[in-house]
Amino acid sequence: MKALVYDAPETLVFRDVPEPKAAEQELLIQVQAVGICGSDMHAFLGHDARRPPPIILGHEAAGVVVGGSRDGERVTINPLVACGRCTACLARRENLCPDRQIISMAPREGAFAQFVSMPESNLISVPNTVSIEKAALAEPLAVSWHAARLGIEALHPSMERTAVVIGGGAIGLAAVLALKAMGIPDVVVVEPNPARRSFLEVNCNLTAVAKHSSHASIIVDAVGYAATRETASALALPGGVIVHIGLGQDTGGLDIRRLTLQEITFIGTYTYTAQDFRDTAQALFDGRLGPLDWIEQRPLSNGAAAFADIKFGRVAAPKIVLKP
Predict the structure, then answer these.
(1) What is the largest CA-CA distance in the chain?
(2) All domains of the chain, ordered by start, with CATH?
(3) Which UniProt keywords apply (predicted)?
């Protein structure tokens, strides 16, 4: 089969690789749409030790089952594979499973390929009314759905229902959609890239600003750099909540003194539970997350150019979806 292989930092090669074989209790999926994630970009730049080359990246995928009891079924893929037996899994917190695996991280190859193998329990049927490209957005939407849920659950009932999301990429945009779907009507996006800011305002009908000075109850850092954590520390209301999703930079930025004196809750969030993924997929299918028409589609064979365009800020759309 053909795949886009990460061979070395900033080197992606579209070439032939062996086709995967479905393991026991797994099914083979013909990938029809797969998004480029920020973590794929980190790996591409050589900044992710969890994804050493050579490896096939890509985990935001949807396609059609080939063979088995669900042959021909259109599915979206939950890429997180948990053991199902540990304390975290039994508590339905699969994202904290110590033996968790995610496709695009060794030992599981990713979905920038024509085929991928996944446990049947990780596959969610996609209605015929939903395009396969939109179905591939379930994974990044689930990341933000999980984060929004944790942030709202941690918010004291007395707090006003306002939020600021730092970062207007797919995860930031998805956080806005999730927060609004969960009853937070007043959400502002902070996005320094003028092209992306314009895209969010014109195409997504969102309030997007280059800088923001007003405080809010919930601050979502969808970038994860020292500078954005500094901004989050400054913008959170006393008693508010900072929800941290981004993995851009490991350290720095948090104003620990302010977080302590103003009793601000800081929550690190990672991926999603299996229930979060199911809930997100259903919200997507029901239209509760909007039209989701903010993707740019490109062929997988042109994937290397897409990564370069993202690196140099030449992409206004929050998400590029590749088509094998």
Answers:
(1) 59
(2) 2-137+292-323 (3.90.180.10), 141-268 (3.40.50.720)
(3) Metal-binding, Oxidoreductase, Zinc
